[in-house]
Design goal:
The protein is an alpha/beta fold. The protein has twelve helices and 16 strands. It has one domain: NAD(P)-binding Rossmann-like Domain (Rossmann fold). It binds nicotinamide-adenine-dinucleotide. Nicotinamide-adenine-dinucleotide (NAD) binds next to helix 2, helix 6, strand 5 and strand 9.
C-alpha cells in the first residue's frame, strides 16, 4: 500500500512509519515539527533526545534499505499542501496523527485553547477536502480519543448508538461529554468526518484511542538513532509514562485526587497493531467506522500501585501522593466501554504486566540524569489555566 502518515515525527507517528515500511509498504511521513516547538514553549523535553525526522529516516534507510519519504510542512497553515501530496502520491491509506495532543495544553489559556482547536479542526478539514478532490478512494484512519465520550453513567458504545425516542428509532453518533477543549476538537473532527462520509462518500475509520504507554517498539531495536519522543511531563506525558519516570528518580507518584478516575489504556505496540488492522481491513466508501482503541481499563490509583510494586524490585522506595485534582472530572464513576471491533479483526493485546512496567522503569533509570523537574508536578488547572510562575 502507499501510506501517508500525517504527524510522522510524533510519539506514535515515527514508530508507525517504521512498522509499515518494514512490512514493504511505501511510506511518506509529513510533519511540521510543531510539537517540538510547543514542548520548548512549556519548558519540557522528551526523556532522551529525539533525532530529527529526516535523520531518523536516513538512518532507517542505511539500516534496512527501506525508504521513508519525509515532507516538513504544516497541514493546517498550508491548505494547498495535502492537495499536492495526495495528487502526486495517490495514497491508499492516510493515517492522521497530526494534531495538538494534550488536554492540559488546551486548558493553559485562551490562546492555547484557540490554537488547539484551529490546528486540529482546520487541519482535519484540510485532510477531508484534499481527499475529496484528489484521492476520494483512499481510506482515512483518523486518531480520535476515548476522552471524547467523557465518563457517562451508561455503557460507551463504539461510536454509534441505537436510540429509541417517543416510539421511533434511529442510529446516531454516540453523545459526547468531552473532558477538555482538546477532546472537544476531536469531537468536532468526528462530526466533520461523519459528514464527509455521508456527503462525499469518503471512507473513514475513527480510532477513539485510550491512553498510550510504552517506551519502544521492535523496529527501534534499542537503536538511539531510531527512538521515539517519550514525554513524561504534566503537559505532554501520559500518566503511566510519568509515573515510571517519577519512580526512577525517587519522586512520589502524583495521583490527582482519589485516583478513582478510570480510563482505557494500551501499549504503544498495540497502537501499531490496531492501525495496521484498520489499514488491512478498510472502511467502505461512505462508511464512518469507529473503533474504541484500547485493551484494558485501569484507575489512576491502580496504575500508581502497579508501579509502586514493581519499583520494589529495583530497591526504590516509591510513595504515592494524592494531589488536589487540577482537572474537573469525576473521581468515582461508572466506566464500561465496548471495544470489540479491533479484537474481531485479530488484535492480540500486549497486557500491562509487571515485566512491561519493569522494562519502562529500566529505560527511565538509564536516562535518569536527563530527567527535568519541570513538569513533574501539574501546572495547569482546568479552572485557572497555567500557573505562569512554574513555566
Ligand atoms: N499518545 C496518546 O496517548 C494518545 C491517546 C489518544 C489519542 N492520541 C492522538 O494520536 C495522535 C498522535 O499522538 P502522539 O502522542 O503521537 O502525539 P505527538 O504530538 O507526539 O505527535 C503529533 C505530531 O503531529 C505534528 N503536528 C501537529 N499539528 C500539525 C500540523 N498542523 N501540521 C503538521 N504536523 C503537525 C506534531 O509536530 C507531532 O510530531 C494525536 O492526534 C493524538 O491526539 C494520542
Amino acid at each position: 500500500m502507499r501510506i501517508c502518515i500525517l504527524g510522522g515525527d510524533g510519539y506514535l507517528g515515527w514508530p508507525t512509519a517504521m512498522h509499515f515500511s518494514l512490512r514493504g509498504h511505501e511510506v511518506v511521513a509529513v510533519d511540521s515539527m510543531i510539537k517540538r516547538h510547543w514542548a520548548t514553549m512549556v519548558g519540557v523535553a522528551p526523556l532522551e533526545p529525539t533525532p530529527f525526522l529526516q535523520d531518523r529516516a536516513a538512518h532507517w534507510y542505511k539500516k534496512t534499505g527501506k525508504l521513508i519519504d519525509v515532507v516538513v510542512d504544516d497541514i493546517t497553515a498550508n491548505p494547498g499542501l495535502l492537495h499536492q501530496i495526495f495528487r502526486d502520491y495517490q495514497p491508499d491509506v492516510i493515517i492522521h496523527y497530526a494534531e495538538q495532543p494534550s488536554a492540559p495544553y488546551s486548558m493553559m489559556n485562551q490562546e492555547a485553547a484557540i490554537h488547539t482547536q484551529q490546528n486540529n479542526i482546520i487541519g482535519n478539514l484540510n485532510v477531508m477536502f484534499a481527499m475529496r478532490d484528489n484521492c476520494p478512494q483512499a481510506h482515512l484512519i483518523k486518531l480520535g480519543t476515548m476522552g471524547e465520550y467523557g465518563t457517562p453513567n451508561i455503557d460507551i458504545e463504539e461510536g454509534w448508538i441505537e436510540i429509541e425516542h417517543k416510539g421511533r428509532k434511529d442510529r446516531m453518533l454516540y453523545p459526547k461529554k468531552a473532558h477538555s477543549l482538546y477532546h472537544l476538537s476531536k469531537v468536532a473532527d468526528s462530526n466533520n468526518l461523519e459528514f464527509g462520509c455521508r456527503i462525499w462518500n469518503l471512507a473513514v475509520t475513527d480510532l477513539n484511542q485510550g491512553v498510550v504507554y510504552g517506551t519502544d517498539t521492535p523496529e527501534m531495536d534499542n537503536d538511539p538513532e531510531l527512538r521515539t519522543s517519550f514525554h513524561y511531563d504534566d503537559i505532554f506525558g501520559t500518566v503511566l509514562n510519568r509515573f515510571v519516570v517519577q519512580a526512577a528518580i525517587g519522586n512520589p507518584l502524583t495521583v490527582y485526587g482519589t485516583g478513582g478516575q478510570t480510563r482505557g489504556y494500551l501499549n504503544i505496540r498495540d497502537t501499531l497493531q490496531c492501525v495496521e488492522l484498520a489499514a488491512l481491513h478498510p472502511a467502505k466508501a461512505g462508511e464512518f467506522r469507529v473503533f474504541n482503541q484500547f485493551t484494558e481499563q485501569f484507575s489512576i490509583l491502580d496504575l500508581a500501585q502497579k508501579v509502586q510494586k514493581v519499583s520494589l524490585q529495583y530497591h526504590l522506595d516509591t510513595t504515592i501522593n494524592h494531589l488536589p485534582n487540577p482537572r474537573e472530572e469525576m473521581e468515582q464513576h461508572y466506566y464500561h466501554a465496548i471495544h470489540t471491533g479491533l479484537p474481531e479483526l485479530g488484535l492480540r493485546p500486549c497486557p500491562l504486566t509487571d515485566d512491561v512496567i519493569a522494562h519502562m522503569l529500566e529505560c527511565a533509570i538509564r536516562a535518569k540524569e536527563s530527567i527535568r523537574s519541570v513538569g513533574l508536578l501539574p501546572r495547569v488547572t482546568w479552572k485557572h489555566g497555567m500557573d505562569e510562575r512554574r513555566v
